[in-house]
From TrEMBL:
Source taxon at top rank: Bacteria
Protein name: Terminase
Organism this protein belongs to: Bifidobacterium longum
Length: 136
């Protein structure tokens, strides 16, 4: 097992060209937070309300034909997650979150894509913007 340092390295290396990094507060990936912050990666930590908004945005874009993705054969883990996920209610506002259709189903690829999309919709970060650093 390689542990998780490879993930921290990968994210930190790609951070300069990344719009956002989002981690659900209930995710095991929270263990990466301190190391990512030490590498100056700004992380959006989401809660259940954010997940409701994220799933809503995802489903709205899907319904409106504004969400594109790789073909199933190029992203088989995502295809399996989508095929085996359903929605569940979050709170009393009508928001929904993803739920696996069975205890042996891994929907983490779908959750990751949902949070990635959400992160791009709430960030002000533009990795293509030219920035100037002034020290004085």
């Amino acid at each position: 097992s390689k542990g998780t340092q490879w993930a921290v390295d990968y994210i930190a290396d790609h951070w300069p060209r990344t719009a956002s990094v989002a981690i659900d507060s209930q995710s095991p990936a929270m263990s990466l937070l301190a190391d990512l912050k030490a590498r100056h990666v700004k992380v959006i930590v989401t809660n259940y309300s954010d997940m409701g908004r994220a799933c809503g945005k995802f489903l709205d874009m899907l319904r409106d034909g504004k969400l594109t993705h790789l073909p199933d054969d190029k992203a088989p883990a995502l295809a399996t997650a989508v095929a085996n996920a359903t929605t569940r209610s979050i709170g009393k506002s009508g928001a929904v979150g993803w739920n696996p259709m069975g205890s042996d189903i891994d929907i983490s690829p779908l959750v990751a894509c949902t949070l990635a999309l959400y992160g791009t919709t709430i960030t002000k970060r533009d990795p293509d913007r030219v920035q100037e650093v002034m020290i004085g």
